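Hi F.,

I've been meaning to write this up properly since the lab meeting, where we talked about keeping a consistent format for the predictions we share between groups. The idea is simple: the sequence comes first, exactly as it goes in, then the structure tokens exactly as they come out, then a line or two of notes. No screenshots and no reformatting. I'm using this chain as the first example so we have something concrete to point to.
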Amino acid sequence: MQTLSGRTIIVTGGGSGIGAAIARGLAEHDVRVGIADIDLDAANQVAAEVRANGGQAHAVKFDVTNRESVAAGIAEVVSKFGNLYAMVNNAGISAEVPFLDATEKDWNSTMTVNGLGVLLCMQEAAKVFIKQGQGGRIINTTSITAKNASANFAPYAASKSAVSSLIQSGARALAPHNIRVTGFAPGIVDTHLWKGIQQDNITRQLKMENYAKQILVGRVAVPQDLVPTVLFLVSSGADYLTGQVITVDGGMVLS
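Output, unedited:
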């Protein structure tokens, strides 16, 4: 596989959790990383860590639900580092709510960030790739809930099904421009999202232990577990892969 050295890759939601782990992992391979997050302070902190470890990173404020913000953020990273090579659309939100209690607000907020936000980032990155004329990579974070939905995460699961669908439609639409569109589907990952969902640390720990019993490898994931898959998807080793989602769940869902 060709080296990733010197290539520019943007990671949305890069200020924490899976996104931050991806940004750090890419930087370790000499990628120039655009760390995009609606929380600019968090993005700046991760960027500072990357630079302190000898990597190249630039933090940029990104509201994935606003096309102008997305376009401006991509342009800022390209201006800083040069041509864009790949876009990792990882930003997302989640909330636990029983199926019968899910409200219009729950649905709209989740679908706007997780669904529309991914579409806008895909479109604006693709425009840059097409203008550059050298192809590109788009990698979306979906979830095992897209095909194995939980009763208490209906809006989230639906939004991740939308992301999986966008991977397929994007792959078909962008193939003539040599743009590969793929994704990865994590299982249960111990991130800040879970910390936010479970305010009670004891309840959260018990849930994590219960989930671990359902996973063949015997534990829930940590963000670093997803990094090797992303490294593969942005590499030349994935040149013949598009429109597909790789499940990375430790054997929680078998299909």
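Notes:
The beta strands are 8-12, 32-37, 56-61, 84-89, 136-141, 179-186, 245-248.
The domain at 8-188+223-248 is CATH 3.40.50.720 (Rossmann fold).

If this format works for you, I'll send the rest the same way.

G.
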